[in-house]
Amino acid sequence: MTATPHPHRSGPSPAAEPSHTPAPAAGTEPVRGPHAPPVPAGFAPSAPRPASRRRFAEPASVTGASEPGRGTASAQNPRTFTQGPRPPVRGLPRRSEWLPHQLVAALAQHRMATLTQLHAMLRPGATRRTVSNPLTVLHERGLVDFVVLPQSHRARAWFLTADGARIANGFPELRGRPARPVASADEASLKSAHTLTVVRAHLAFAADARRRGDEHGFLDWIPEAVHAVGGCTGELVVSDALLHYTRVTAGTRTPLRALVEVDRTTMSSQRLTARLVTHARLHAAASAVGRHRPAQPGTPHGRPAWSRGYSLFPAVLFVLTGAGRPELAHRIEDLQATAAEHPDISGLAEEVPLGAAVLEDLEEHGPSAAIWTPLTGGGPRPWTHL
User: Does residue 302 come out as left (phi exceeding 0), alpha (psi in the -120 to 50 range) or beta?
Assistant: First the structure.
């Protein structure tokens, strides 16, 4: 029976590795001081320690015996060799070994995604088989499952099973955000349209960040972000996503945040504008003031509840799709009218960037293009200039 090598080990075993310390030449002995203790019988004297004990930087030529894959010995001095290509550090996983972990983490974070979306999210420069092969292995092991999307040429929407969610809940990068498995294929089919549209919005920001040298990864987009309004009502505001984005310009890093609402034109325009009013209540509401939480000076009703998580209230962005251009333009006009006329939105509009854009424009031109309509009035501009 042929032994199968361990999948995470490469190269010789530690016991088979060559010694890094050269043996002293035959007939020679290191110089010993007059008070050095005698060498016990049966033991050879040890070689002298090198003068340098540097740990973190290795010079171009190293004193010691030649190692396989590290360099070649010099003819003048057999104990000195020129630095060659270094082998991979033993114990660290290869990039290909991280991908199954990232696939599970991505599906835990985004709930659901197609192969095309996972490819663009995790390995945009690689072939599709780079992602499809480990995804198939995860499916064979019962960690992920899929449903076939209607009218999509047999495209599949992938999601975590109960076993996959249990494993994902142990990932440190997902701590505090438990993964929820999809209970059935029917649930996956019913939720796939909206969930995959939200992923499309994330991928537009991620692709734009790569082009601009900014930072926005698959864990920087938090779907179904929940915020408590505060007070004693227990009201919760659930946004479609919380966007974390780092803009990098001339060595300066600027963190940006936004609450994103994705509208597929499946609700009435009145319900869409009510989402804007809900975010205004979240911005204005103060946390409850009690015996152990006194009011701050100048804020008689306590500090805002959202300030426990943010230094500044995030921008509010509406991403619209699912209808023709005229209907989408009318819905944006309704958002602008609500921002101008509703009394609860005046404070939000003065302090928080508010904007709306069409999803197809984000995918074609990128979010940093002048495609966002400010809800407070004015011409189109980038989302960072609302």
Answer: left
